[in-house]
Protein backbone atom coordinates (compact mmCIF):
# COMPACT_ATOMS: atom_id res chain seq x y z
CA UNK A 1 0.00 0.00 0.00
CA UNK A 2 2.86 2.36 0.87
CA UNK A 3 4.54 1.53 -2.45
CA UNK A 4 1.33 2.31 -4.33
CA UNK A 5 0.96 5.71 -2.60
CA UNK A 6 4.57 6.61 -3.36
CA UNK A 7 4.05 5.72 -7.00
CA UNK A 8 0.93 7.84 -7.08
CA UNK A 9 2.77 10.80 -5.53
CA UNK A 10 5.60 10.49 -8.03
CA UNK A 11 3.08 10.46 -10.84
CA UNK A 12 1.47 13.62 -9.44
CA UNK A 13 4.83 15.35 -9.05
CA UNK A 14 5.85 14.41 -12.59
CA UNK A 15 2.37 14.93 -14.01
CA UNK A 16 3.18 15.16 -17.64
CA UNK A 17 0.35 17.25 -18.88
CA UNK A 18 -0.57 20.83 -18.10
CA UNK A 19 -4.02 21.76 -19.35
CA UNK A 20 -5.13 25.13 -20.63
CA UNK A 21 -7.76 26.51 -22.99
CA UNK A 22 -6.51 28.24 -26.11
CA UNK A 23 -8.27 31.13 -27.82
CA UNK A 24 -8.84 28.98 -30.92
CA UNK A 25 -11.42 26.72 -29.22
CA UNK A 26 -9.06 23.87 -28.36
CA UNK A 27 -8.13 22.29 -25.07
CA UNK A 28 -4.35 22.12 -25.09
CA UNK A 29 -2.36 19.45 -23.27
CA UNK A 30 1.19 20.65 -22.78
CA UNK A 31 3.92 18.26 -21.67
CA UNK A 32 6.87 19.31 -19.58
CA UNK A 33 9.08 19.12 -22.68
CA UNK A 34 6.71 21.70 -24.28
CA UNK A 35 5.09 19.22 -26.70
CA UNK A 36 1.53 20.48 -27.25
CA UNK A 37 -1.46 18.28 -28.12
CA UNK A 38 -4.75 19.88 -29.13
CA UNK A 39 -8.26 18.61 -28.34
CA UNK A 40 -10.76 19.99 -30.85
CA UNK A 41 -13.88 21.20 -29.03
CA UNK A 42 -15.84 21.51 -32.27
CA UNK A 43 -16.15 17.72 -32.42
CA UNK A 44 -17.48 17.46 -28.88
CA UNK A 45 -21.18 17.63 -27.90
CA UNK A 46 -22.43 21.18 -27.51
CA UNK A 47 -25.94 21.32 -26.10
CA UNK A 48 -27.78 23.68 -23.80
CA UNK A 49 -29.70 21.95 -21.03
CA UNK A 50 -32.78 24.16 -21.53
CA UNK A 51 -35.39 22.14 -23.42
CA UNK A 52 -37.28 25.17 -24.76
CA UNK A 53 -34.05 26.67 -26.12
CA UNK A 54 -33.28 23.35 -27.83
CA UNK A 55 -36.75 23.12 -29.33
CA UNK A 56 -36.71 26.66 -30.73
CA UNK A 57 -33.27 26.23 -32.25
CA UNK A 58 -34.35 22.97 -33.89
CA UNK A 59 -37.11 24.77 -35.82
CA UNK A 60 -36.75 25.52 -39.51
CA UNK A 61 -37.79 28.83 -41.07
CA UNK A 62 -41.14 27.48 -42.29
CA UNK A 63 -41.88 26.08 -38.81
CA UNK A 64 -41.07 29.40 -37.13
CA UNK A 65 -43.26 31.26 -39.60
CA UNK A 66 -46.13 28.82 -39.00
CA UNK A 67 -45.78 29.21 -35.24
CA UNK A 68 -46.02 33.00 -35.49
CA UNK A 69 -49.20 32.73 -37.58
CA UNK A 70 -50.61 30.10 -35.24
CA UNK A 71 -50.00 32.03 -32.02
CA UNK A 72 -51.07 35.45 -33.31
CA UNK A 73 -54.54 34.16 -34.11
CA UNK A 74 -55.13 34.87 -30.44
CA UNK A 75 -54.61 38.49 -29.43
CA UNK A 76 -54.38 37.72 -25.72
CA UNK A 77 -51.69 39.75 -24.00
CA UNK A 78 -50.08 36.58 -22.59
CA UNK A 79 -49.72 35.17 -26.09
CA UNK A 80 -47.98 38.33 -27.23
CA UNK A 81 -45.57 37.94 -24.33
CA UNK A 82 -44.67 34.39 -25.34
CA UNK A 83 -43.90 35.66 -28.84
CA UNK A 84 -41.42 38.07 -27.24
CA UNK A 85 -39.88 35.17 -25.29
CA UNK A 86 -39.75 33.13 -28.51
CA UNK A 87 -37.96 35.92 -30.42
CA UNK A 88 -35.48 36.52 -27.59
CA UNK A 89 -34.57 32.84 -27.31
CA UNK A 90 -34.34 32.48 -31.09
CA UNK A 91 -31.68 35.22 -31.24
CA UNK A 92 -29.55 33.77 -28.42
CA UNK A 93 -26.58 31.58 -29.34
CA UNK A 94 -26.28 30.08 -25.84
CA UNK A 95 -28.97 29.94 -23.19
CA UNK A 96 -28.47 32.34 -20.28
CA UNK A 97 -31.47 33.16 -18.13
CA UNK A 98 -29.97 36.39 -16.80
CA UNK A 99 -29.40 37.69 -20.32
CA UNK A 100 -32.92 36.59 -21.29
CA UNK A 101 -34.50 38.52 -18.39
CA UNK A 102 -32.53 41.64 -19.37
CA UNK A 103 -33.98 41.36 -22.88
CA UNK A 104 -37.52 41.07 -21.41
CA UNK A 105 -37.82 43.95 -18.89
CA UNK A 106 -41.61 43.49 -18.61
CA UNK A 107 -41.22 39.85 -17.51
CA UNK A 108 -40.29 38.84 -13.95
CA UNK A 109 -38.41 35.66 -13.10
CA UNK A 110 -41.51 33.84 -11.71
CA UNK A 111 -43.47 34.85 -14.83
CA UNK A 112 -40.71 33.60 -17.11
CA UNK A 113 -41.05 30.01 -15.89
CA UNK A 114 -44.80 30.01 -16.63
CA UNK A 115 -44.33 31.69 -19.99
CA UNK A 116 -41.69 29.15 -21.02
CA UNK A 117 -43.97 26.24 -20.09
CA UNK A 118 -46.83 27.77 -22.05
CA UNK A 119 -44.59 28.56 -25.02
CA UNK A 120 -43.25 25.00 -25.11
CA UNK A 121 -46.80 23.58 -25.30
CA UNK A 122 -47.83 26.08 -27.98
CA UNK A 123 -44.85 25.27 -30.19
CA UNK A 124 -45.65 21.55 -29.96
CA UNK A 125 -49.31 22.23 -30.81
CA UNK A 126 -48.22 24.31 -33.80
CA UNK A 127 -45.87 21.58 -35.00
CA UNK A 128 -48.54 18.92 -34.62
CA UNK A 129 -50.89 20.96 -36.78
CA UNK A 130 -48.18 21.54 -39.39
CA UNK A 131 -46.80 17.98 -39.48
CA UNK A 132 -50.05 16.01 -39.22
CA UNK A 133 -50.18 15.32 -42.96
CA UNK A 134 -46.56 14.12 -43.03
CA UNK A 135 -46.85 11.53 -40.27
CA UNK A 136 -49.05 8.45 -40.32
CA UNK A 137 -48.72 8.16 -36.53
CA UNK A 138 -50.01 11.71 -36.04
CA UNK A 139 -52.84 11.05 -38.50
CA UNK A 140 -53.96 7.92 -36.63
CA UNK A 141 -53.79 9.73 -33.30
CA UNK A 142 -55.86 12.54 -34.76
CA UNK A 143 -58.50 10.11 -36.03
CA UNK A 144 -58.71 8.51 -32.59
CA UNK A 145 -59.07 11.94 -30.97
CA UNK A 146 -61.90 12.81 -33.37
CA UNK A 147 -63.65 9.51 -32.73
CA UNK A 148 -63.35 10.03 -28.97
CA UNK A 149 -64.74 13.58 -29.19
CA UNK A 150 -67.72 12.38 -31.22
CA UNK A 151 -68.30 9.60 -28.68
CA UNK A 152 -68.34 12.16 -25.86
CA UNK A 153 -70.85 14.23 -27.84
CA UNK A 154 -73.14 11.20 -28.14
CA UNK A 155 -72.67 10.90 -31.91
CA UNK A 156 -71.94 7.17 -31.76
CA UNK A 157 -72.48 6.24 -35.41
CA UNK A 158 -70.19 9.06 -36.57
CA UNK A 159 -67.60 7.91 -34.04
CA UNK A 160 -67.81 4.33 -35.35
CA UNK A 161 -67.33 5.52 -38.94
CA UNK A 162 -64.10 7.30 -37.98
CA UNK A 163 -62.96 4.25 -35.98
CA UNK A 164 -63.49 2.09 -39.08
CA UNK A 165 -61.46 4.53 -41.18
CA UNK A 166 -58.64 4.60 -38.60
CA UNK A 167 -58.59 0.78 -38.32
CA UNK A 168 -58.49 0.38 -42.10
CA UNK A 169 -55.50 2.77 -42.31
CA UNK A 170 -53.74 1.01 -39.42
CA UNK A 171 -54.22 -2.45 -40.98
CA UNK A 172 -53.05 -1.28 -44.42
CA UNK A 173 -49.81 0.03 -42.89
CA UNK A 174 -49.45 -2.71 -40.24
CA UNK A 175 -49.62 -0.12 -37.46
CA UNK A 176 -50.95 -2.63 -34.93
CA UNK A 177 -49.98 -0.57 -31.88
CA UNK A 178 -52.83 1.85 -32.66
CA UNK A 179 -55.49 -0.85 -32.89
CA UNK A 180 -56.03 -1.70 -29.17
CA UNK A 181 -57.25 1.80 -28.27
CA UNK A 182 -59.49 1.90 -31.36
CA UNK A 183 -60.95 -1.54 -30.59
CA UNK A 184 -61.41 -0.58 -26.91
CA UNK A 185 -63.40 2.53 -27.88
CA UNK A 186 -65.48 0.51 -30.32
CA UNK A 187 -66.20 -2.09 -27.61
CA UNK A 188 -67.25 0.67 -25.21
CA UNK A 189 -69.71 2.09 -27.74
CA UNK A 190 -71.15 -1.35 -28.59
CA UNK A 191 -71.49 -2.38 -24.94
CA UNK A 192 -73.03 0.82 -23.59
CA UNK A 193 -75.22 1.93 -26.48
CA UNK A 194 -77.56 0.31 -28.99
CA UNK A 195 -76.01 0.92 -32.42
CA UNK A 196 -77.80 -1.74 -34.44
CA UNK A 197 -74.69 -3.97 -34.71
CA UNK A 198 -75.92 -7.13 -33.01
CA UNK A 199 -74.77 -10.74 -32.72
CA UNK A 200 -71.86 -11.45 -35.01
CA UNK A 201 -70.26 -8.00 -34.52
CA UNK A 202 -69.56 -8.60 -30.83
CA UNK A 203 -67.95 -11.96 -31.61
CA UNK A 204 -65.91 -10.37 -34.41
CA UNK A 205 -64.63 -7.70 -32.02
CA UNK A 206 -63.49 -10.32 -29.50
CA UNK A 207 -61.70 -12.36 -32.18
CA UNK A 208 -60.14 -9.23 -33.64
CA UNK A 209 -58.88 -8.09 -30.23
CA UNK A 210 -57.27 -11.49 -29.53
CA UNK A 211 -55.55 -11.59 -32.93
CA UNK A 212 -54.21 -8.06 -32.52
CA UNK A 213 -52.91 -8.87 -29.03
CA UNK A 214 -51.08 -11.95 -30.35
CA UNK A 215 -49.48 -9.90 -33.11
CA UNK A 216 -48.50 -7.15 -30.70
CA UNK A 217 -46.98 -9.67 -28.31
CA UNK A 218 -44.74 -11.06 -31.05
CA UNK A 219 -43.76 -7.60 -32.32
CA UNK A 220 -43.07 -6.37 -28.80
CA UNK A 221 -40.90 -9.36 -27.86
CA UNK A 222 -38.88 -9.13 -31.07
CA UNK A 223 -38.39 -5.37 -30.77
CA UNK A 224 -37.31 -5.83 -27.13
CA UNK A 225 -34.76 -8.45 -28.21
CA UNK A 226 -33.37 -6.20 -30.95
CA UNK A 227 -33.15 -3.21 -28.61
CA UNK A 228 -31.44 -5.15 -25.81
CA UNK A 229 -28.84 -6.60 -28.17
CA UNK A 230 -28.17 -3.15 -29.62
CA UNK A 231 -27.86 -1.79 -26.08
CA UNK A 232 -25.28 -4.48 -25.29
CA UNK A 233 -23.24 -3.43 -28.32
CA UNK A 234 -23.42 0.30 -27.48
CA UNK A 235 -22.18 -0.40 -23.96
CA UNK A 236 -19.58 -3.11 -24.61
CA UNK A 237 -18.87 -3.30 -28.34
CA UNK A 238 -17.92 -6.67 -29.86
CA UNK A 239 -17.67 -9.89 -27.85
CA UNK A 240 -14.22 -9.97 -26.26
CA UNK A 241 -13.85 -13.71 -25.75
CA UNK A 242 -15.65 -17.03 -25.82
CA UNK A 243 -17.36 -16.26 -22.48
CA UNK A 244 -18.86 -13.07 -23.95
CA UNK A 245 -20.06 -14.97 -27.00
CA UNK A 246 -21.67 -17.70 -24.90
CA UNK A 247 -23.42 -15.03 -22.85
CA UNK A 248 -24.84 -13.43 -26.01
CA UNK A 249 -25.81 -16.85 -27.45
CA UNK A 250 -27.64 -17.79 -24.24
CA UNK A 251 -29.51 -14.49 -24.08
CA UNK A 252 -30.49 -14.68 -27.76
CA UNK A 253 -31.79 -18.26 -27.63
CA UNK A 254 -33.71 -17.68 -24.39
CA UNK A 255 -35.41 -14.51 -25.68
CA UNK A 256 -36.11 -15.37 -29.31
CA UNK A 257 -39.89 -16.01 -29.39
CA UNK A 258 -41.04 -19.42 -30.56
CA UNK A 259 -42.20 -19.26 -34.17
CA UNK A 260 -40.47 -15.94 -34.85
CA UNK A 261 -38.69 -17.03 -38.08
CA UNK A 262 -42.03 -18.08 -39.57
CA UNK A 263 -43.64 -14.64 -39.16
CA UNK A 264 -44.73 -12.86 -42.36
CA UNK A 265 -45.69 -9.39 -41.12
CA UNK A 266 -43.51 -6.38 -41.88
CA UNK A 267 -42.74 -5.38 -38.29
CA UNK A 268 -42.21 -8.95 -37.10
CA UNK A 269 -39.66 -9.51 -39.88
CA UNK A 270 -38.06 -6.09 -39.39
CA UNK A 271 -37.32 -6.68 -35.70
CA UNK A 272 -36.35 -10.32 -36.35
CA UNK A 273 -33.75 -9.21 -38.92
CA UNK A 274 -32.53 -6.49 -36.59
CA UNK A 275 -32.14 -9.01 -33.77
CA UNK A 276 -30.06 -11.33 -35.97
CA UNK A 277 -28.08 -8.32 -37.24
CA UNK A 278 -26.94 -7.28 -33.74
CA UNK A 279 -26.49 -10.90 -32.66
CA UNK A 280 -24.09 -11.48 -35.57
CA UNK A 281 -22.33 -8.12 -35.29
CA UNK A 282 -21.58 -8.49 -31.58
CA UNK A 283 -20.07 -11.94 -32.29
CA UNK A 284 -18.17 -10.61 -35.33
CA UNK A 285 -19.84 -13.15 -37.59
CA UNK A 286 -19.66 -10.69 -40.47
CA UNK A 287 -21.11 -13.03 -43.09
CA UNK A 288 -24.27 -13.52 -41.01
CA UNK A 289 -24.22 -9.77 -40.31
CA UNK A 290 -24.22 -9.12 -44.07
CA UNK A 291 -27.02 -11.62 -44.75
CA UNK A 292 -29.40 -10.07 -42.25
CA UNK A 293 -28.61 -6.44 -43.05
CA UNK A 294 -29.35 -7.31 -46.69
CA UNK A 295 -32.66 -8.91 -45.62
CA UNK A 296 -33.37 -5.77 -43.55
CA UNK A 297 -32.90 -3.48 -46.58
CA UNK A 298 -34.66 -5.86 -49.00
CA UNK A 299 -37.72 -5.82 -46.73
CA UNK A 300 -38.15 -2.13 -47.57
CA UNK A 301 -37.95 -2.95 -51.28
CA UNK A 302 -40.72 -5.51 -50.73
CA UNK A 303 -42.80 -2.86 -48.90
CA UNK A 304 -41.95 0.43 -50.70
CA UNK A 305 -44.45 2.46 -48.65
CA UNK A 306 -42.51 1.50 -45.51
CA UNK A 307 -39.62 3.67 -46.73
CA UNK A 308 -41.83 6.65 -45.95
CA UNK A 309 -43.57 5.28 -42.85
CA UNK A 310 -40.42 3.87 -41.18
CA UNK A 311 -37.76 6.05 -42.79
CA UNK A 312 -35.46 5.91 -39.76
CA UNK A 313 -35.33 2.11 -39.81
CA UNK A 314 -34.60 2.10 -43.55
CA UNK A 315 -31.73 4.55 -43.12
CA UNK A 316 -30.34 2.46 -40.25
CA UNK A 317 -30.57 -0.66 -42.41
CA UNK A 318 -28.61 0.97 -45.24
CA UNK A 319 -25.99 2.09 -42.72
CA UNK A 320 -25.54 -1.43 -41.36
CA UNK A 321 -25.43 -2.94 -44.85
CA UNK A 322 -22.55 -0.58 -45.71
CA UNK A 323 -20.83 -1.55 -42.47
CA UNK A 324 -21.13 -5.21 -43.48
CA UNK A 325 -19.53 -4.49 -46.85
CA UNK A 326 -16.75 -2.64 -45.00
CA UNK A 327 -16.11 -5.57 -42.65
CA UNK A 328 -16.03 -8.05 -45.55
CA UNK A 329 -13.97 -5.73 -47.79
CA UNK A 330 -16.76 -6.06 -50.32
CA UNK A 331 -15.59 -3.06 -52.37
CA UNK A 332 -17.89 -2.99 -55.40
CA UNK A 333 -21.14 -3.70 -53.57
CA UNK A 334 -20.08 -1.06 -51.03
CA UNK A 335 -19.95 1.57 -53.76
CA UNK A 336 -23.26 0.47 -55.32
CA UNK A 337 -25.15 0.56 -52.02
CA UNK A 338 -23.50 3.84 -51.00
CA UNK A 339 -24.80 5.39 -54.24
CA UNK A 340 -28.27 4.04 -53.40
CA UNK A 341 -28.05 5.56 -49.91
CA UNK A 342 -26.84 8.92 -51.23
CA UNK A 343 -29.70 9.02 -53.74
CA UNK A 344 -32.26 8.25 -51.03
CA UNK A 345 -30.69 10.91 -48.75
CA UNK A 346 -31.52 13.53 -51.40
CA UNK A 347 -35.19 12.51 -51.55
CA UNK A 348 -37.89 14.92 -50.43
CA UNK A 349 -38.82 12.65 -47.51
CA UNK A 350 -35.31 12.90 -46.01
CA UNK A 351 -34.55 16.51 -46.88
CA UNK A 352 -37.75 17.82 -45.29
CA UNK A 353 -37.13 16.06 -41.97
CA UNK A 354 -34.33 17.30 -39.69
CA UNK A 355 -33.93 13.96 -37.93
CA UNK A 356 -33.59 11.94 -41.14
CA UNK A 357 -31.32 14.54 -42.71
CA UNK A 358 -28.92 14.45 -39.74
CA UNK A 359 -29.07 10.64 -39.52
CA UNK A 360 -28.26 10.30 -43.23
CA UNK A 361 -25.39 12.78 -43.00
CA UNK A 362 -23.73 10.91 -40.10
CA UNK A 363 -24.05 7.50 -41.72
CA UNK A 364 -22.97 8.59 -45.22
CA UNK A 365 -19.98 10.52 -43.83
CA UNK A 366 -19.01 7.42 -41.84
CA UNK A 367 -19.35 5.21 -44.93
CA UNK A 368 -17.21 7.51 -47.07
CA UNK A 369 -14.45 7.49 -44.45
CA UNK A 370 -14.71 3.70 -44.21
CA UNK A 371 -14.21 3.36 -47.95
CA UNK A 372 -11.04 5.46 -47.85
CA UNK A 373 -9.79 3.38 -44.91
CA UNK A 374 -10.20 0.04 -46.72
CA UNK A 375 -8.74 1.31 -50.01
CA UNK A 376 -5.80 3.15 -48.44
CA UNK A 377 -6.81 6.49 -49.99
CA UNK A 378 -6.38 8.35 -46.71
CA UNK A 379 -5.24 11.66 -48.23
CA UNK A 380 -8.36 11.74 -50.43
CA UNK A 381 -10.46 11.02 -47.36
CA UNK A 382 -8.95 13.97 -45.50
CA UNK A 383 -10.61 16.29 -48.03
CA UNK A 384 -13.95 15.28 -46.48
CA UNK A 385 -12.97 16.31 -42.95
CA UNK A 386 -13.59 20.11 -43.10
CA UNK A 387 -17.11 19.56 -44.45
CA UNK A 388 -17.84 16.85 -41.88
CA UNK A 389 -16.63 19.04 -39.01
CA UNK A 390 -18.77 21.96 -40.23
CA UNK A 391 -21.86 19.75 -40.41
CA UNK A 392 -21.14 18.19 -37.01
CA UNK A 393 -21.05 21.67 -35.54
CA UNK A 394 -24.26 22.65 -37.34
CA UNK A 395 -26.05 19.51 -36.13
CA UNK A 396 -24.43 19.38 -32.68
CA UNK A 397 -27.81 19.67 -30.94
CA UNK A 398 -29.08 16.52 -32.65
CA UNK A 399 -26.06 14.21 -32.58
CA UNK A 400 -25.57 11.95 -29.56
CA UNK A 401 -22.28 11.27 -27.76
CA UNK A 402 -21.93 7.85 -29.32
CA UNK A 403 -22.03 9.19 -32.88
CA UNK A 404 -19.54 11.93 -31.99
CA UNK A 405 -17.16 9.36 -30.50
CA UNK A 406 -17.38 7.14 -33.59
CA UNK A 407 -16.85 10.06 -35.96
CA UNK A 408 -13.85 11.31 -33.97
CA UNK A 409 -12.33 7.82 -34.14
CA UNK A 410 -12.91 7.43 -37.88
CA UNK A 411 -11.38 10.82 -38.63
CA UNK A 412 -8.44 9.95 -36.38
CA UNK A 413 -7.81 6.78 -38.44
CA UNK A 414 -7.71 8.87 -41.62
CA UNK A 415 -5.02 11.10 -40.14
CA UNK A 416 -3.14 8.07 -38.81
CA UNK A 417 -3.17 6.37 -42.21
CA UNK A 418 -2.03 9.54 -43.96
CA UNK A 419 0.89 9.96 -41.53
CA UNK A 420 -0.42 13.07 -39.71
CA UNK A 421 -0.03 11.58 -36.23
CA UNK A 422 -0.30 14.85 -34.29
CA UNK A 423 -3.77 15.62 -35.68
CA UNK A 424 -4.71 11.98 -35.14
CA UNK A 425 -3.92 12.48 -31.43
CA UNK A 426 -6.10 15.61 -31.36
CA UNK A 427 -9.18 13.62 -32.36
CA UNK A 428 -8.36 10.63 -30.17
CA UNK A 429 -8.13 12.89 -27.12
CA UNK A 430 -11.81 13.75 -27.59
CA UNK A 431 -12.64 10.07 -27.05
CA UNK A 432 -10.14 9.48 -24.24
CA UNK A 433 -11.56 12.47 -22.33
CA UNK A 434 -15.13 11.13 -22.61
CA UNK A 435 -16.79 9.85 -19.39
CA UNK A 436 -16.82 6.09 -18.94
CA UNK A 437 -19.87 3.90 -19.56
CA UNK A 438 -20.17 4.22 -23.34
CA UNK A 439 -18.39 2.03 -25.92
CA UNK A 440 -15.64 0.68 -23.66
CA UNK A 441 -14.16 -1.02 -26.74
CA UNK A 442 -13.78 2.31 -28.55
CA UNK A 443 -12.26 3.85 -25.44
CA UNK A 444 -9.67 1.05 -25.38
CA UNK A 445 -8.69 1.22 -29.03
CA UNK A 446 -8.59 5.01 -29.03
CA UNK A 447 -5.90 4.68 -26.35
CA UNK A 448 -4.12 2.01 -28.37
CA UNK A 449 -4.02 4.09 -31.57
CA UNK A 450 -2.96 7.06 -29.41
CA UNK A 451 -0.01 4.94 -28.26
CA UNK A 452 0.83 3.99 -31.87
CA UNK A 453 0.71 7.66 -32.92
CA UNK A 454 3.21 8.64 -30.20
CA UNK A 455 5.46 5.78 -31.33
CA UNK A 456 5.33 7.07 -34.91
CA UNK A 457 6.14 10.60 -33.69
CA UNK A 458 9.22 9.23 -31.97
CA UNK A 459 8.10 10.31 -28.50
CA UNK A 460 10.12 7.53 -26.90
CA UNK A 461 10.34 9.39 -23.57
CA UNK A 462 6.56 8.90 -23.25
CA UNK A 463 6.37 5.32 -24.47
CA UNK A 464 7.13 3.59 -21.16
CA UNK A 465 4.50 5.54 -19.22
CA UNK A 466 1.87 5.37 -22.00
CA UNK A 467 2.40 1.65 -22.58
CA UNK A 468 1.87 0.87 -18.90
CA UNK A 469 -1.15 3.17 -18.69
CA UNK A 470 -2.89 1.75 -21.79
CA UNK A 471 -2.10 -1.82 -20.78
CA UNK A 472 -3.64 -1.30 -17.33
CA UNK A 473 -6.72 0.28 -18.85
CA UNK A 474 -7.30 -2.44 -21.45
CA UNK A 475 -6.62 -5.16 -18.89
CA UNK A 476 -9.17 -3.59 -16.55
CA UNK A 477 -11.70 -3.47 -19.41
CA UNK A 478 -10.86 -7.11 -20.29
CA UNK A 479 -10.03 -6.02 -23.83
CA UNK A 480 -6.70 -7.77 -24.27
CA UNK A 481 -6.20 -10.33 -27.03
CA UNK A 482 -3.04 -12.01 -28.32
CA UNK A 483 -2.61 -9.12 -30.79
CA UNK A 484 -2.65 -6.51 -28.03
CA UNK A 485 -0.39 -8.61 -25.80
CA UNK A 486 2.17 -8.79 -28.63
CA UNK A 487 1.86 -5.06 -29.20
CA UNK A 488 2.53 -4.25 -25.56
CA UNK A 489 5.43 -6.70 -25.48
CA UNK A 490 6.98 -4.84 -28.42
CA UNK A 491 6.31 -1.35 -27.02
CA UNK A 492 7.75 -2.18 -23.59
CA UNK A 493 11.07 -2.75 -25.29
CA UNK A 494 10.75 -0.21 -28.10
CA UNK A 495 12.44 2.63 -26.24
CA UNK A 496 15.54 0.46 -25.83
CA UNK A 497 16.17 0.27 -29.59
CA UNK A 498 17.13 2.75 -32.27
CA UNK A 499 14.93 3.02 -35.38
CA UNK A 500 17.23 0.66 -37.31
CA UNK A 501 17.26 -1.87 -34.47
CA UNK A 502 13.46 -1.88 -34.30
CA UNK A 503 12.98 -3.45 -37.74
CA UNK A 504 13.95 -7.03 -36.73
CA UNK A 505 11.66 -6.69 -33.70
CA UNK A 506 8.80 -5.55 -35.95
CA UNK A 507 9.42 -8.54 -38.23
CA UNK A 508 9.09 -10.86 -35.21
CA UNK A 509 5.94 -9.02 -34.15
CA UNK A 510 4.42 -9.48 -37.64
CA UNK A 511 5.37 -13.16 -37.74
CA UNK A 512 3.74 -13.74 -34.34
CA UNK A 513 0.38 -12.21 -35.31
CA UNK A 514 0.03 -12.79 -39.06
CA UNK A 515 -1.32 -16.34 -38.62
CA UNK A 516 -4.09 -15.06 -36.32
CA UNK A 517 -5.96 -13.13 -39.04
CA UNK A 518 -8.71 -15.76 -39.19
CA UNK A 519 -9.41 -15.85 -35.44
CA UNK A 520 -12.39 -13.64 -34.58
CA UNK A 521 -11.57 -13.04 -30.93
CA UNK A 522 -7.81 -12.67 -31.29
CA UNK A 523 -8.10 -10.14 -34.09
CA UNK A 524 -10.89 -7.88 -32.82
CA UNK A 525 -8.41 -5.03 -33.16
CA UNK A 526 -8.59 -5.40 -36.97
CA UNK A 527 -12.13 -4.02 -36.79
CA UNK A 528 -10.68 -0.82 -35.32
CA UNK A 529 -7.32 -0.52 -37.12
CA UNK A 530 -5.55 -2.63 -39.74
CA UNK A 531 -2.65 -3.65 -37.48
CA UNK A 532 -1.27 -6.17 -40.02
CA UNK A 533 -1.01 -3.51 -42.72
CA UNK A 534 0.64 -1.12 -40.25
CA UNK A 535 3.23 -3.77 -39.37
CA UNK A 536 3.82 -4.60 -43.03
CA UNK A 537 4.38 -0.92 -43.75
CA UNK A 538 7.02 -0.75 -41.02
CA UNK A 539 8.78 -3.93 -42.15
CA UNK A 540 8.68 -3.03 -45.86
CA UNK A 541 9.41 0.63 -45.08
CA UNK A 542 6.49 1.83 -47.17
CA UNK A 543 3.59 4.13 -46.25
CA UNK A 544 0.63 2.29 -44.72
CA UNK A 545 -1.60 3.84 -47.41
CA UNK A 546 0.47 2.16 -50.15
CA UNK A 547 0.26 -1.27 -48.45
CA UNK A 548 -3.55 -1.10 -48.13
CA UNK A 549 -4.02 0.32 -51.64
CA UNK A 550 -2.03 -2.55 -53.15
CA UNK A 551 -4.23 -5.03 -51.28
CA UNK A 552 -7.27 -3.25 -52.67
CA UNK A 553 -5.94 -3.53 -56.23
CA UNK A 554 -5.13 -7.22 -55.79
CA UNK A 555 -8.51 -8.00 -54.28
CA UNK A 556 -10.18 -11.11 -55.67
CA UNK A 557 -13.69 -9.94 -54.82
CA UNK A 558 -16.11 -11.01 -57.51
CA UNK A 559 -17.71 -8.35 -59.67
CA UNK A 560 -21.40 -8.01 -58.90
CA UNK A 561 -22.35 -6.71 -62.33
CA UNK A 562 -21.02 -9.93 -63.95
CA UNK A 563 -22.46 -12.61 -61.68
CA UNK A 564 -24.49 -15.49 -63.08
CA UNK A 565 -28.28 -15.69 -62.54
CA UNK A 566 -27.74 -18.47 -59.96
CA UNK A 567 -25.14 -16.34 -58.12
CA UNK A 568 -27.58 -13.41 -58.19
CA UNK A 569 -30.32 -15.63 -56.72
CA UNK A 570 -28.02 -16.82 -53.92
CA UNK A 571 -26.81 -13.30 -53.28
CA UNK A 572 -30.39 -12.01 -52.98
CA UNK A 573 -31.10 -14.76 -50.45
CA UNK A 574 -27.96 -13.88 -48.50
CA UNK A 575 -26.58 -17.41 -48.99
CA UNK A 576 -23.44 -16.81 -51.06
CA UNK A 577 -20.11 -17.19 -49.32
CA UNK A 578 -17.82 -15.78 -52.05
CA UNK A 579 -16.23 -13.09 -49.93
Identify low-pLDDT runs. Answer: 1-47, 557-579
Strand content: under 5%
* Major β-sheet annotation: 3 strands, antiparallel
What structural class should be given to the helix and strand makeup? Answer: mainly alpha
Choose one word for the global shape: globular
Q: What is the mean pLDDT?
A: 83
Task: Give the radius of gyration.
Answer: 29 Å
Roughly how much helix do the residues carry, as a percent range?
over 70%
Tally the helices: what do you get? 29
List how many beta strands DSSP finds: 3
Q: What strand order characterises the main sheet?
A: 1-2-3
Give the N-to-C terminal Cα separation.
54 Å
List keywords for this structure.
globular; three-stranded antiparallel β-sheet; mainly alpha; 29 helices; 3 strands; disordered C terminus
Plain-language structure description:
With 579 residues, the chain is mainly α. Among the domains are: 2-43, no CATH class; 51-125, no CATH class; 135-198. It has 29 helices and three strands. Strand 1 and strand 2 (26-30) form a beta hairpin. It is globular.
Short recap of the structure:
Helix content is 70%, strand content 2%. It is mainly α and 579 residues long. The chain has a three-stranded antiparallel beta sheet with strand order 1-2-3.
Amino acid sequence: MLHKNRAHNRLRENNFYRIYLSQTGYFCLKSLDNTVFHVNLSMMPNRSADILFQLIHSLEKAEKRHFKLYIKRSSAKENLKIVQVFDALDKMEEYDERVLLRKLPAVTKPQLANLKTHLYKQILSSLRLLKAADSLDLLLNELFDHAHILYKKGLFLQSLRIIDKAKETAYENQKYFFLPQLIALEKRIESLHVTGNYGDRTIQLSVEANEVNKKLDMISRLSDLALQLYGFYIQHGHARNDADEQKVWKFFIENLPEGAPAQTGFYERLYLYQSYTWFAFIRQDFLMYYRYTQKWVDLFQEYPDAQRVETGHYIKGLHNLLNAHFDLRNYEKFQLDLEQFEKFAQSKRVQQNENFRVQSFVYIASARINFHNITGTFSEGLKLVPGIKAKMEEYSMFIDRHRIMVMNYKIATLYFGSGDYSTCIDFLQNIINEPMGLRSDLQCYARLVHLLAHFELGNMDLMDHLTRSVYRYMSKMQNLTVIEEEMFRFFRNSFKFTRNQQRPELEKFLENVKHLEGNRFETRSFAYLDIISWLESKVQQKPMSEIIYQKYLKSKKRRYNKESPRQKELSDQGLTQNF
